[in-house]
Amino acid sequence: MKKLPLTFAVDVGNSHTVLGIFKGDKVVDHWRLTTRKETTSDEVMNRIGGLIRFSEIKPSEITHVGLSTVVPVLERPWIKALQTLLKRPVQVVSSKNCLNCPIAYPNPAMLGADRLCNVIALRDRGLKDAIVVDMGTATTFDVMKDGGFAGGIIIPGISASLDVLTEKAARLLPVSIEWPDKVIANNTDDAIRAGLLYGFMAELETLVAKIKAEMGKKNVPVFATGGWGQMVMGHSKVIDTYDPYLTLNGVRLVAVRGNAAAAEEHDAEEE
Known about the structure:
This protein is an alpha/beta fold. The chain is 35% helix and 23% strand. The protein has helices at 41-52, 72-86, 113-124, 158-168, 188-215, 229-233, 246-257, and strands at residues 6-12, 16-23, 26-34, 64-69, 90-92, 130-135, 138-145, 148-156, 222-225, 241-242. The strands form two sheets. Strands 3-2-1-4-5 form a five-stranded mixed β-sheet, with helices on both faces. Helix 2 (72-86) links the parallel strand 4 (64-69) and strand 5. The radius of gyration is 20 Å and the shape is globular. The model is unreliable at 265-271 (pLDDT under 50).
């Protein structure tokens, strides 16, 4: 019986970094960390080394390593830390290492690796057309058409919108983000919550409808992922599936099948 690969996948986002260990295509361990923009490979190695010590999977058992990052300055320390800790080459997701996924951007290198991972993961499931709503610091709408990345939309995320609102309006203070009982609020905190969440839902439904109309296809599956995806899922009629590991699965696929492992940099000093 063929032994399943053990893959260590990392998705570095603007606010959070998600890590997972896959046995074959199943998640066996995962963690969510705060992204630190200023960090060294030693600090990264210390953080992930501590996590792995609590896992049933030993570093020596890892067979493949993949990395996606939308923070360019963190790519080098993460590569170095992963190579040092796991003793494996690191496949970095990019427009040049995307399992031949067609990209409709005039400059494919400008496409965020996380958005590319979402489409890679759905292509692997045999889908040709799909919409992914990835809800993080920004909310992105990633459109897959005819098996390739066709483009999409970027809007402020839910928490980012709250930050801007409370920063610019002196009398509005930050609130916990949770669904209010009704749209017409009788207090300021719930008024902010209603505006954020029901306002986002209106954006979501309108943009998905416009995307489908522009694609010329009505029956297009809509996937949600990202930190706010689960919270929104139960209140939306346009989202078909919530998959918290969709992006990480794309990283896994590139880790196992990619062809552009990052070069090792044993002696390079970090600035």
